[in-house]
Every structure is written in structure tokens, then in C-alpha cells.
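FYI - complex with flavin-adenine dinucleotide, inputs then prediction.
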Amino acid sequence: MSRVAELLAQAAGPLLSFEFFPPRSDEERPRFDGAVAKLAAFRPAFLSVTYGASGSTRDRTVAATATLAATQPATVVGHLTCVSQSRDDLLRTLDRFQAAGVRNILAVRGDMPGGPQQPFEAHPDGLTNATELVQLIKAHGDFCVGVAAFPNVHQPDNDPELDARIVVDKAEAGASYAITQLFFESHRYAELVERVRSRGCDIPIIPGIAPLTVITQIERFAALADCPLPEDFVADLRAAGDPAEVRRVGMARAIRLCRELLDLGAPGLQFFTQNRWRATTEVLQALDWPCP
Ligand SMILES: Cc1cc2nc3c(=O)[nH]c(=O)nc-3n(C[C@H](O)[C@H](O)[C@H](O)COP(=O)(O)OP(=O)(O)OC[C@H]3O[C@@H](n4cnc5c(N)ncnc54)[C@H](O)[C@@H]3O)c2cc1C
């Protein structure tokens, strides 16, 4: 299986990648399988699977990642967090990924089970941040490691320079690329890239995209993005008369954002699919993304 770093280095143009979450039950399995199958038509460079806070969710992540690695032609990335786990727990999970042929890990710290607002507390035998996780993974095996980056400042520090320094720390620890949290203004991405580059770090930074299709996602996405959505966007969404119009406004924004990011030279687009395929497909079709 290829390393994401190699794919990025060899790519003739921007890469496409999709994030899924592991099915939480047998009932959710068809939605996961269906999204993977539909989006496979775009020949993504890599697929990734998120890692949950509880033990059972973690097992499902490893299982779903292993299934994708065994069945999909794309490179597969397993996410790994260090929240509520000892170093030995993390090493055991890495061994399970390795046994499944997974050589790409997205190393993120994770949030406490109570959510992002809860102050982070390291496991007594564990790690305090993603930089330490990158170091642990690189020391343990031949993994290609990606990390998170934040176009909107990451809370609670609210310090864009610290966010950039942390990306550079993670690159110096051995990370080969970063994927951003979702955001809705391309200048935020350009500013993050500039802050990282001004520190002498040329790590590829792939923007993370989540098309907003229902009105309740305004608050949910704001919590994920670490800041309120842009005022003009929220005003357009609230002014939309019905769910179909909300979806149209959200899709138009996602398509515009992707175009601007590609114009800025983004090395790829990573879609947070939420195990759905329609919105991502429509954005890619609007971008005339090749679908062999
Ligand atoms: C693409 C992407 C995928 C994700 N996938 C998952 C997933 O699968 N599962 C999941 O649970 N979560 C996931 N997350 C969410 C992520 O776990 C949270 O956003 C978390 O709050 C931060 O993770 P991080 O890796 O950026 O942490 P870190 O890089 O460790 O940073 C977290 C905080 O620690 C502090 N810190 C870290 N390093 C330093 C330093 N050198 N100096 C001072 N302070 C420091 C800062 O306060 C910083 O904001 C993902 C996020 C993204 C963007």
C-alpha cells in the first residue's frame, strides 16, 4: 500500500480523499459500504476512517480500516488519537493496523469523552498531545503519518501563531502532511499555509471540506470548526425558505470554496463524508472532477 506522502509527492495535480466514520452497528453498515462504493467511482487517492473515544468504537475503527485496506484500491489511512489510552494501548492499536496492512496513520490528539469543551487530561501512562503521538508512531514502525491543522484558530488557546507552531512541531516530529479541520472561507486556509511556510515548513496541507446541507449543521459545524460560521453564509442559510433551498445555498458555498482552494494551489481536497455520498458527488461533478 502506498504512503500518502509518496502520493502527494508524485501527484500531477490535486489529490482526492474521503473520510468515513466506522459503522456503529450492523444497521449502519450498508450506509458506510454504500458511500465507499459510490465515491470509489472518483478513484480517490486515499480513504480514511475516524477513531472514536470509547473502546468499542476504537475496535470498529480498526475493523473498518482493515476492511477498506483489504477491499479498496485506494490507499487507506487509519486515524489514531491518544485520549484515554496508555502508550501500550496505542502501540497495540498500531500493531493491529500494521497486521491489517495499514501503513498510514492520521495522528490526532482527540477530545475528552465529554466533548471538545472539556479540558484535556492525559492518561497517567499516556501522551499529552499529537506531537508526542507522531513521535511514538514514528519510533514504533514504518508508518507515514498525517496530522490535523486548523484554518480557524483552535480553541481554547485562540492563537493562530500557536496553531502554526504546533503544525511545524508535528512536521519536525515526523509528520508528512496535514489535513485541516472544516472551514468556509478560503482566505483562512491561505493564511494558515502562509503562517506555516513563514516558519520554514513546507509540509503539504490538505483542506478538509464538509458541504453543509441541513440547517441544524450551522451549530454543529461551528463547534467542529471552532468558530461561528461566516455571517454572510449564516444569513443566506437562515433566509432560505425550505430545506431544498438551504441545501442549495450550502452546496453553492462548498463548490465556491473548493474552486478557490484549488486556485490557491491546495495539494488536494479531503471530504468529510459522514458516510454519505450525494453531496460530495455533486460538489465533485460541479468541479468537473474526472470520474473514470
Ligand atoms: C482532519 C482531522 C481529523 C480528525 N480526526 C479525529 C478522529 O478520528 N477522532 C477524534 O477523536 N478526533 C479527531 N479530530 C479532532 C481532534 O482530535 C481535535 O480537534 C483535537 O482537539 C485536537 O487535535 P490535534 O491533533 O490538533 O491536537 P494537538 O496538535 O495535540 O493540539 C491540541 C492542543 O494541545 C495544545 N498543544 C499541543 N501542542 C502544543 C505545544 N507544542 N505547545 C503548546 N500547546 C500545545 C494546544 O492547546 C493545542 O490546541 C480530527 C481533526 C481533524 C482536523
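Residues 50-51, 53, 79, 81, 106, 108-111, 116, 129-131, 148, 154, 157, 166, 169, 179-181, 208 surround flavin-adenine dinucleotide (CB under 6 Å). The longest strand covers residues 75-81.
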